[in-house]
Automatic annotation (TrEMBL):
Alphabetical list of SUPFAM superfamilies matching this protein: DAK1/DegV-like
Record keyword Hydrolase present: no
Entry keyword set: Lipid-binding
Functional summary from the UniProt entry: May bind long-chain fatty acids, such as palmitate, and may play a role in lipid transport or fatty acid metabolism.
Superkingdom assignment: Bacteria
Entry annotated with the keyword Transmembrane: no
Protein name as annotated: DegV family protein
Length: 286
């Protein structure tokens, strides 16, 4: 029996890939206008960005314990081996909830064959880890090989991104270390990355055009074996700039493939419109 890959909606993979690779996706919750929505199911990220531009402040919450319990029970009853690759535990309580519900389900189904991995990744950086695991699962790779590959990819996944307004991240408590980046000068763009699952500032850059060029320079400094990689770019309702970055990367590196998709509702509610994020491996592709 092949291994079932489970992810949550913070992976930001397009629905087409979720479907093609048979990934089981559970949703974080988005709270907007006194209503609750399921990320990637009952709300579109464009709705969230438009609401933020209108001055609203959507909030999010982790995947519900009940959703995990029902999902894990269904696979326990089927005797299905599973790997749940989770959104970074430094950015959400979803991983911890999954671990708790696994333990609860195991009390009734001690043979549950479920492995939970904290990817320490977010958005399409997380999505690329999920995608590689799902590709292996579709090739009927062993559970051990999938776990080994997922560990390799999560440990070597770079996240380089910029936001239009750090206030969104500050509001959600996501960038406590980035407070020093908030200045009064116009057109200062923060460049951030993810370190041990946390959002950490790298530098500040003057000018929108310069920040894209600098992202490519950072990729050159950190990336390895790009010609064999699928790299990813996610954006906060700013496809034009995402495509500009993709064109710069294509010219510089000729990667195997470039995946572009919006930052989903659960992460976008914290990063805000105008976010541009770049994801790649800093080690040879496997």
């Amino acid at each position: 029996m092949s291994v079932q890959i489970i992810a949550d909606s913070a992976c930001d993979l397009p629905d087409s890939l979720i479907h093609d690779y048979g990934i089981d996706r559970v949703s974080l919750t988005v709270h907007l206008d006194d209503k609750d929505y399921l990320d990637a199911k009952t709300i579109d990220s464009k709705e969230v960005y438009d609401a933020m531009r209108a001055g609203k402040a959507p909030k999010t919450s982790q995947v519900s314990p009940q959703a995990f319990k029902e999902l894990f029970e269904s696979y326990a009853k089927a005797g299905q081996p599973c790997v749940y690759l989770a959104f970074s535990s430094e950015l959400s309580g979803t991983y911890q909830t999954a671990v708790m519900m696994k333990q609860e389900v195991e009390e009734e189904y001690p043979d549950l064959n479920l492995h939970i991995v904290d990817t320490h990744c977010a958005s399409l950086g997380y999505g690329l880890v999920v995608l590689r695991a799902a590709q292996l699962a579709q090739e009927n790779a062993s559970l051990e090989d999938i776990m080994e590959m997922a560990a390799y990819h999560k440990d070597h996944m770079e996240h380089i991104f910029t936001v239009d307004d750090l206030e969104y991240l500050k509001r959600g408590g996501r960038v406590s270390k980035a407070a020093a980046f908030v200045g009064t000068m116009l057109k200062i763009k923060p460049l951030l990355h993810v370190e041990d699952g946390k959002l950490i500032p790298l530098e500040k850059i003057r000018g929108t055009k310069k920040v894209l060029s600098r992202m490519v320079e950072v990729m050159e400094e950190r990336a390895d074996d790009v010609s064999h990689q699928t790299i990813a770019i996610s954006h906060g309702d700013d496809l034009e700039r995402a495509e500009q970055l993709a064109a710069l990367i294509q010219e510089a590196f000729q990667p195997k493939d470039i995946l572009i998709n919006p930052v989903g509702s659960s992460i976008g509610a914290h990063s805000g419109p105008g976010t541009i994020a770049l994801f790649f491996l800093n080690a040879p592709y496997k």
